[in-house]
Each structure stands twice: as C-alpha cells, then as structure tokens.
Amino acid sequence: MTTVAFEVGEGTLVLQTGDITKVPSDAVANAANAQLAGGGGVDGAIHRAGGRAIMRELDKIRAKAGDCEPGDAVATSAGKLPAKWVLHAVGPIYAGGANGEAATLASCYRRCLDLAGELGARSLSLPAISTGAYGYPLDDAARIAVETVAAVMSDRSTPVRRVAFVLFGEETFEAFATAARRALPKTLS
Known about the structure:
Elements: E1 3-8, E2 11-17, E3 27-32, H1 41-50, H2 52-65, E4 73-77, E5 85-90, H3 101-119, E6 123-126, H4 138-154, E7 162-167, H5 170-183
Parallel strand pairs: 2-7, 3-5, 3-6, 6-7
Antiparallel strand pairs: 1-2, 4-5
C-alpha cells in the first residue's frame, strides 16, 4: 500500500492505495448512482462488503425521497463495513466539462464532509468519485477533489479531522498525489 499524508487545517488528509471496504473510518463515501440502486465499481464493492442492510436502508430513502441528485449524498449505516456510516454520493457523468460537472463533483465532496460532520464522524474515507464508469478525466477530478476537501478542512468548521482518499491503483494515486502536492503546502509523510 502506498500512502502519503498532508497537514490541512487542524486535520490530516491522507492519500493511500487500497480497498476502501477494508479501511476503518467513522464514515465511508460511496460513488453511488442517482437511483441509489447499487452498481459496479466502488458502489458494488461497498454493497457486497457491507451486506443487504445498506440496500434495505436505501430502499426506504428512495421510497420517501426518490432519486438522489448529482452533487448530493445520503447516509445509511455501514452494515458489515469497518465504519459506522456510508455516505452515498452521486457524482456527475462527464459530458465534456461544459455542463457544470466540476461544480457538481466539488459538491459531492463538500456534501460528504457536511454529512460526516452532522453524524459526528471524525474520520472519513473517500473514493475517486466519477472517475470510473462516469468518465471524469482523472487529473481534473483529482484536482477538484483535493482542493475541495482541503478547503473544507482548512476553514476549521468541520469536526472531521482525518480524511483519507482510498484510491484503487497507482495511476489514480499518482494523479491525487500530484494534485495534493500542488495544492497543499505541508507533507507529513
């Protein structure tokens, strides 16, 4: 596993390779679809590892509120995952970049930090939202993700003190590490 950490505000931003379903944290974000119906990639892995309890809660949320809009997120318990909550964030489907995709992606990350804080989470694990089947260019997505999370952590209003981007593969890790080195002044490791 490759890991690097940065000091951000009163907290720590960690980049690491690995399986997000195995990383202990208070909350873990899921790259969900708008129907909150489960899927492939991170979404499928979280549902498989967390068990059926997560989908039962999502069914209730869907029945009450309908689809989740891109840029927003909803919370469930984490089932069998090493976390208390799963934050199901709906990222944008990339369509060239002129359709508000950057603002929507940034909103996903802000919403995850807001929800985590509302739940009392002190630690949060995040995937690279929208970079898989939704086609967001990796370098741009990494920059948006790192800058957005760092901005929320820097304003000191969030109780979340440890945010870990848990990234699948070295290419994704390197894109996030490059973005973090450009945006964040102090590396801890």
